[in-house]
Amino acid sequence: MASETEHQSFFESVYQVVRLIPYGRVTSYGAIAAFLGSKRSSRMVGWAMNASHSSIENIPAHRVVNRNGMLTGKFHFGEPGLMAQLLENEGIITENDRIVNFREVFWDPNKELELNL
DNA sequence: GGTGTGACCAGCT
DNA sequence: AAGCTGGCCACAC
Fold first, then answer.
1. CA-CA distance, A20 to A35, in Å (whole number)?
2. What are the tens digits of pLDDT across the range A19-72?
C-alpha cells in the first residue's frame, strides 16, 4: 500500500480551496478551516497563506479575509493597499481596509463546495 | 524533538 | 460594550 501517499499537507488543502474561490468572491479563514474539518484551526489557514509565496501556483490570497471582512493580511502583500486594489479590481468594494458588501460577496466553501475529496 | 509562532475565532471579564 | 486571553494545530529553527 503506501503508494505515493498523498501527503497533501494542510497547506496544499488550503491552497486548493483558495484556488477554487470564484472571481469576485471572498471567503474567510474560519470558513476554510471549517471546510477542512477544524473550525478552530483558522490560524493555520492564515499561516498557510503566509507560505503561499512558496507555492508555484498563484494563490488568490487577496480573496481570503477574516470573518469581519477586514483585510487583515493586506500587509503581507508586499505593499499595503495592494490587497484592496486587487479586490476592487474584481468588483469588490472595500472601504477602510474592509469589504463593504462582504455579505454579498462572501463565498462559503461549505455551502458552495461539496465534499468531493 | 521541544519551543515558538501565526494573515483567526470565540468566549470570558 | 469592549478589550484581552486562551485555544488550536501545523510548520520552521
1. 13
2. 999 999 999 999 999 998 777 889 999 999 988 888 878 899 999 999 999 999
Q: List residues bridging with A28 in a β-sheet.
A: A65
Q: How many C-alpha atoms does A49 have within 13 Å on its Cβ side?
A: 24
Residues near strand B (C-beta below 7 A) are A 28-30, 39-40, 42-47, 49-50, 52-53, 61, 64, 66-68, 72-73, 76-77
Judged on CB neighbours under 10 Å (0-12, 13-18, 19+), A114 is exposed
Q: So where are chain A's domains? A: 10-107
CATH of domain A10-107: 1.10.10.10
C-alpha to C-alpha distances, A40 to A23, A31, A62, A86, A113, nearest whole angstrom = 26, 10, 21, 28, 20
pTM given for the model: 0.87
